[in-house]
Amino acid sequence: MADRKTERVTRLRLIVMSFLQFAVWGAYLPSLGRYLGQVGLGPEIKWFFALQGIVSLFMPALAGIVADRLIPAQKLLSFCHALAGTFMISAGAYSANIASAPEFTPLFVLYGCSVAFYMPTISLSSSVAYHALSVAGMDPVINWPPIRAFGTVGFIFCMLAVNWLKVGGVAIQNSHMQLFLSGALSLVLSLYSLSLPRCKTNSGKKGKSFAESLGIKALYLFRQRRMAVFFLFAMMIGAAMKVTDAYSNTFLASFGAIPQFADSFAVRNSNALLAISQTSETLCILLIPFFMKRFGIKKVMLISVVAWTLRFGFFAIGEPDMPRVLFLILSCMVYGVAFDFFNVSGSLFVEQNSDSDIRSSAQGLMILMTNGLGGSIGTLAAGSVVDRYVYEAAAPSWPTVWAIFATYVLVVGILFAFLFKEEGGRKS
User: Fold this and answer.
1) CATH superfamily of 1-203
2) Looking at domain 208-428, which of 3.40.140.10, 3.40.50.2300, 1.10.540.10, 1.20.1250.20 is its CATH number?
3) What is the pLDDT of residue 36?
4) Are 59 and 120 in contact (CB under 8 A)?
5) C-alpha–C-alpha distance, residues 79 and 75, integer Å
6) Of 19, 149, 170, 417, which has the most beta carbons under 10 Å away?
7) Each residue of 285-315: pLDDT tens digit?
């Protein structure tokens, strides 16, 4: 058992790490699409966000192998954040120094290098936390979730900071300054990571293979019809998850071109409005144990589908002024149910229905299907829809875009309801 002082110190150090880890992301993820749209790169937004899914196919697994065998996780975390921060600041510097609007290729390359080194840090920070808690004699299952919640707090904090702070009279959410902020926070976390407890490596020992880290060892689960249906469903809903990251803020900013909405709160403070989504996510995670026990995975997933349909449907009919601004608020409120009931509950389902020797691989497969394949394919497909009905249309129609997304999720949910059979339970 850990003594009280050790517990407090460990918890505080990991809270700081978790806060900074997701503050880095919150500094630009919700508002990058808005900035890109304003500098003439609206049609390219899909590539910036699809890249996160593409690098998630291999970079986290590669970093995991390096951390297992060669470099202690806390040092690799520091190294990755140092590079991610340097490239993100370079992207900001390029955007600041270019005489006209930034060009796609140089900005995308610098941003892409940053994302490639940031995405592995999400799993690395979890590994560092699990090790630190174990060294301190604390149960990671009990102590990590409330610490991880401060990551969402950090994300929300930066969303609001980017929304309210101005540089040169321009809100950070409308400028390249969001890239500088994100990069600076990465560098701070890079230095801070070096102070975290040292993690062990398996140098000279056999660790997880690249295939195991990717979750490929768990592919035999596709031989079970129920699991195959579930993973394919996870991929298709994972595609919807990335849509709001890429286009929610861009959508709200588009109302600025309409005189009656230009000075509305939802347009001027879109990040603050969207922060309701992350707040809802933090609260709704507390509902999962009850709903999983009471209704089972199939009904919980269908509740998620309904929430995703409402998320997009409310966007389709929402406007920045009363009374329709209430639909935008409701869209943000249901996001927590949509995200948590799919993402967290799905992870629990996979853990409970996989053999003990492949549970880690099965979780890797879940991430591969949702964030990797689903995220990249979904973002590119969504980008094509937005291009057709917004950027290439004579009369842009965001309501049509959101209606298409809502219909897509609803159809996927109906197919899941008919094809997925809930049975079985936890494997030994």
Assistant:
1) MFS general substrate transporter like domains (1.20.1250.20)
2) 1.20.1250.20
3) 92
4) yes
5) 6
6) 19
7) 778 778 888 888 888 889 999 999 999 999 9
